[in-house]
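As a warm-up, study this chain.
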Amino acid sequence: MPGFNINGNDENSVSSLKEPKFNHRWTIDQLVGISIERGSPLLFAQKLKLPEYTVDEEKIKGASLEYKFAKGVKWSDVTITFYDTLGLSPKIQEFSGNVFNQNSQALHTAERYKADSVFTLLDGSGLVIETYTLKNSWIKKVSHSELSYESSDIKTVTISLSYDWATRTGDTSTNPTVTT
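Now compare it with the structure written out below.
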């Protein structure tokens, strides 16, 4: 019967199925070039938007058809939302201080603030499934949740990371180190 094999000898059988990826199994290994250590306030991340891209297209009109070609790739900013714990604000201020001088507002050179950020997806055993690396990332935006007497929600801080491009390694049955 297609799609089901009782004796489990087929690569598509129920016994050979892989576990799905879950949204709650991930870590931030490196943020803008700084490794995240145990006990860091950056470990209290709530949400992470993985890298996404759009391929621009160029259209050429022929006699009776319109031909479409890839023109360029645009990478969207990645956002990370953290629970605002003690020690988080100075850490984010340290990252932002690499981009600009907070007293004079003067920008620093790109060599000072651009660095890789690394995120890892894990399976149920804590083993690495995929690793995403944002190349030459930097903190573009910092925003705080709205304060209100109407809510008892935990305060959060969201950062937006800009980057030049991203790579993904892992999650392939033929070669687990293939980069896409």
